[in-house]
Structure prediction request, 381 residues.
Amino acid sequence: MSQQDSYIDRPWMDPEAEPFIKIQGITKHFDDFIAVDNIDLEIYKGELFSLLGGSGCGKTTLLRMLAGFETPSAGRIFIDGIDMTDIPPYQRPVNMMFQSYALFPHMSVEKNIAYGLNRDGIDKHEVKKRVEEILEMVELGPFGKRKPHQLSGGQRQRVALARALVKRPKVLLLDEPLGALDKRLREQTQFELMNIQSELGITFVVVTHDQEEAMTLSTRIAVMDTGRFVQTGTPTEIYEYPESRLIASFIGNTNIFEGRITKNSADHVTVRAKNPECDIRIDHGSSVPEGTKVWVSVRPEKIKLSNTPPVTKAPNQLRGIVSNIGYLGRLSTYHVKVEGDTNIEVTSPNQIRPKDGAHAFDWDDEVFLSWDDSSAAVLTK
Prediction:
């Protein structure tokens, strides 16, 4: 595989690739409140890009500025090389799918989908053709004559998606698109959304507060906090290599150890944690000098539990007592109380059906924890 081929699915790594959406120094004030604070972002053609963050972080305001529904206080927005900052929404090559779906209750599915095309004066034969094509794509062909109230929540979501896609925008903006669906339907619809996006090649920008949804859907994620991006990267980069305690704690669950670097070699660092007292070895180098205060993140699924003590004393080992158990079907969560009255969370897949409902480890069991040198991440903030 050539280097150029390796950039096909990761255009942001190609130094010669031009961003499809370019946000430069965008700021948005509401009186004295700064909703979006001088941010830059580049999104490439064909990406499914997620803006992830808690309520009030600025992600929806940024999406509305991309759509043209809000005017930036400062900065510029470019789409496909054209400055869109002062262009009204109806002249932008974008469409937006709202969380509420905003379907017309008195119109059939077909008429809801065709509404925007009819407003644009598209030939009625072309409208009919496009509506039929998009209905088949979202697997709603037999439901064209129904009204929204005759559909399930997942079907209404697909009607809203079809209505947004039928105009063939260059960019589709989605504001919490799956928020109204139950967990099982949301998980199923995530993959449907990914397949449709891949088939059409349209650039999707999704706003969500759901970490799992962002991890499943996205080519890349920008995590927002108080109007700024705190980390941007692929789901793997965000999860496995968080750049701060905020990211490590926000994306999934983690155990955070505070300590100081006692050894810094080219291929590993050793951190002496203070509560509980233990040595943690991480098998990658760090530019942080010895003696520096740091934090170490270890994900619950990276930790191994055993009833038998280790043969030799080494870094990345702890002893504790099981204080709580959560059975979640596909996995079990264990809270283990270790030295210093600290609880460590460990998750373990339930690969074997338990006999008589017994857990692999029970309440008040003495257990031994360990993890690989590659499992931890050093955090400096």
Observations:
- The radius of gyration is 25 Å.
- The chain has a mean pLDDT of 89.
- The chain has two domains: 17-245, 253-379.
